[in-house]
Amino acid sequence: MLANSASVRILIKGGKVVNDDCTHEADVYIENGIIQQVGRELMIPGGAKVIDATGKLVIPGGIDTSTHFHQTFMNATCVDDFYHGTKAALVGGTTMIIGHVLPDKETSLVDAYEKCRGLADPKVCCDYALHVGITWWAPKVKAEMETLVREKGVNSFQMFMTYKD
């Protein structure tokens, strides 16, 4: 059992909730970072921190699907690492990023993915996933793509069709 197993409960009350299909006034109950209920006059357990959102919009966090933290590509180096980039994302309301793994030609996709995870895991401040760039082609690349999907849960690859190589 965890030393501190208390739930973190938040009730966002009276805001204008914006969904993909409508906007309506409602309360949002969150427990341990997961939305549990959306509606009016919710029945919730005691001990929730109440945030008054009257007159304010309550919107989902954004997802940035193209980030390049801690990366060098085509002789350009990104100035943000995973810590600073994801911290800045959160300040702007982005709660998930998808970073790029861009292996050098002839480099193992699995090794490049693991290296990027090693840089990201201890530093990220928000949810994240990784695209894997296909920067060259060989039967080994196809096999490694299958390994990444099956064993690492990768479900996004980026292919470049504008380069000669």
Automatic annotation (TrEMBL):
GO terms for molecular function: hydrolase activity, acting on carbon-nitrogen (but not peptide) bonds, in cyclic amides. One of its GO terms (cellular component) is cytosol. It comes from the Eukaryota. Belongs to the metallo-dependent hydrolases superfamily. Hydantoinase/dihydropyrimidinase family. This is DPYSL5 isoform 1.
